[in-house]
C-alpha cells in the first residue's frame, strides 16, 4: 500500500475510534481487509483501484462522523453501518445461502484469530452463531507461501497412520458433536468452512478450537468469545405424533433464524423396544444396511424446497434423535411442510403418512 493511502486510512481509522463498538468493529474489519488486499495484490492493482478502495472507507467514515457530529446516531443509519460486509468474506464467496445472507446482514463475527507455530499459521477469520449452528472459516498458511489445499493437508496421513484432527470446547467443556467441512475452491484453496449443530448452547460463551497439525506435529489453540447474533428466532414445536409402518415420528422443534432452519425430530418404536428391536420392526424399504435411512425435505407454502446444509443422528435408550439443517427461505412463509422420503436411486419416494404441516405465526 502506498504511503499516501496508508496515511489517509490511518487518519480515518483514528477519527472513528469514538464510534459504538459494533459499528467501529465493522469499519476496522473493512480497513484490515483493504490493507491486506493491497499488500497481496500490490503489483497487480492500479493506483485508481486503490484510491477507489480508500474512497469507500472514506465515504463510510465521513457519513458516520457527520452523524456523530450532530450528537446522535440514527437507528436506521446505525443498522446500515453495522451491515457493511467485510471485503473478501468467504461466507459470501463460498458459503451456503444462509451464510451469505448472514454475512451481508452483519450477523457474523469477524474473529481474526490466529496462532503460528514453526512457520505455519492457522486462523479463524469469520464466525456465525445464530442459536442453531456454528459456522466458521478456518485457514492454514505456511511462511514459504506454498499453501497446499486444505483438503490435501487435512487428508494427509503419516507413516504412523496419524492425521490432523480438530476438537471444540464451549467454556472449556468439550463438545461431542459431528461437523462438516465445505471446501472453498481455488480462490481460497487453503481454507474451509466448518459447520456444527450442537444442542443447548448458551447465548454467550468462550469458543475454543484445538487443532493438531500432523505436518508440524504442533497443537494450535484458538479462543474466540462468541455471542448469538440473532434475535426473534421463530421456534415451532408441534405436539403431533405421526405413525406408519412401526415408525413413530415426532418433531421436537423447527427453529428458523435469518441464516438457518434447524429441524429436530425423533423416531421411536413400540413402548419398551430398544434400538435393535426398533430397527428390526421397521420394513426394509426405510433402511440401508439394516439402519434407518429416512431423509427430509422442507417445503414452503409456494412449493419451494429449502437447500440442505447437513444433518446427523444417533440412537440410545429406545429413541432415535436427528438434527437436520436447511438454508432459510427468502421470506418467512405462512406454512412449512416437512416431507420425509427414502432415496431410491435418483428418485425420492415420499412417505405422505409421516408428513407434518406447520403454521408459521406472523
Notes on the structure:
There is one protein chain. Residues 15-23 and 33-87 have low confidence and may be disordered. With 362 residues, this protein is α+β, with helices and mostly antiparallel strands. The protein has helices spanning 3-15, 21-40, 47-69, 75-82, 90-94, 97-104, 150-154, 275-281; strands at 113-117, 120-129, 134-142, 165-170, 173-174, 179-183, 191-196, 204-213, 218-227, 234-236, 241-244, 247-256, 261-268, 287-288, 291-292, 295-300, 308-316, 319-326, 335-344, 347-350, 356-359. The protein folds into 3 domains: 1-84, no CATH class; 87-230, Sandwich (Immunoglobulin-like); 234-359, Immunoglobulin-like. The longest helix has 23 residues, at 47-69. The strands form 5 sheets. Strands 10, 11, 12, 13, 17 and 18 form a 6-stranded antiparallel beta sheet that branches. Strands 1-2-3-7-6 form a 5-stranded antiparallel beta sheet. It has 8 helices and 21 strands. 25% of the residues lie in helices and 37% in strands. Helix 1 packs parallel to helix 3 (47-69) and helix 2 (21-40) runs antiparallel to helix 3 (47-69). Keywords: Membrane, Transmembrane, Transmembrane helix. Residues 49-139 form the DUF4179 domain. Residues 235-356 form the DUF5643 domain. InterPro entries: DUF4179 (IPR025436), DUF5643 (IPR040680). It holds the Pfam family DUF5643.
Amino acid at each position: 500500500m502506498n504511503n499516501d493511502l496508508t496515511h489517509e486510512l490511518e487518519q480515518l481509522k483514528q477519527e472513528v475510534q469514538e464510534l459504538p463498538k459494533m459499528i467501529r468493529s465493522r469499519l476496522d474489519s473493512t480497513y484490515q481487509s483493504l490493507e491486506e488486499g493491497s499488500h497481496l495484490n500490490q503489483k497487480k492493482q492500479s493506483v485508481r483501484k486503490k484510491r477507489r478502495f480508500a474512497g469507500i472507507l472514506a465515504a463510510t467514515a465521513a457519513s458516520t462522523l457527520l452523524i456523530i457530529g450532530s450528537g446522535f446516531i440514527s437507528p436506521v443509519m446505525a443498522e446500515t453501518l453495522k451491515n457493511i460486509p467485510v471485503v473478501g468474506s468467504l461466507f459470501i464467496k463460498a458459503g451456503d445461502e444462509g451464510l451469505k445472507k448472514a454475512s451481508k446482514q452483519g450477523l457474523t463475527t469477524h474473529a481474526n484469530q490466529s496462532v503460528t507455530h514453526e512457520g505455519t499459521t492457522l486462523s479463524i477469520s469469520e464466525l456465525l452463531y445464530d442459536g442453531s449452528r456454528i459456522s466458521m472459516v478456518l485457514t492454514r498458511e505456511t511462511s514459504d507461501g506454498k499453501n497446499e489445499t486444505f483438503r490435501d493437508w487435512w487428508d494427509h496421513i503419516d507413516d504412523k497412520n496419524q492425521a490432523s484432527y480438530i476438537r471444540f470446547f464451549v467454556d472449556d467443556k468439550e463438545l461431542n458433536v459431528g461437523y462438516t467441512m465445505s471446501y472453498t475452491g481455488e480462490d481460497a484453496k487453503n481454507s474451509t468452512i466448518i459447520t456444527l449443530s450442537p444442542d443447548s448452547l448458551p447465548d454467550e460463551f468462550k469458543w475454543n478450537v484445538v487443532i493438531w497439525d500432523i505436518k508440524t506435529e504442533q497443537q494450535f489453540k484458538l479462543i474466540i468469545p462468541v455471542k448469538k447474533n440473532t434475535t426473534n428466532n421463530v421456534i415451532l414445536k408441534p405436539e403431533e405424533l405421526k405413525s406408519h409402518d412401526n415408525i413413530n415420528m415426532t418433531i421436537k422443534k423447527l427453529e428458523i433464524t435469518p441464516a438457518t432452519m434447524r429441524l429436530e425430530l425423533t423416531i421411536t418404536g413400540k413402548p419398551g423396544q430398544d434400538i435393535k428391536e426398533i430397527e428390526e420392526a421397521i420394513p426394509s424399504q426405510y433402511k440401508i444396511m439394516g439402519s434407518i435411512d429416512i431423509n427430509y425435505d422442507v417445503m414452503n407454502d409456494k412449493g419451494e424446497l429449502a437447500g440442505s446444509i447437513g444433518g446427523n443422528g444417533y440412537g440410545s435408550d429406545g429413541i432415535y434423535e436427528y438434527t437436520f439443517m436447511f438454508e432459510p427461505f427468502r421470506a418467512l412463509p405462512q406454512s412449512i411442510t416437512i416431507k420425509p422420503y427414502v432415496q431410491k436411486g435418483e428418485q425420492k419416494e415420499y412417505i405422505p403418512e409421516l408428513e407434518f404441516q406447520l403454521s408459521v405465526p406472523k
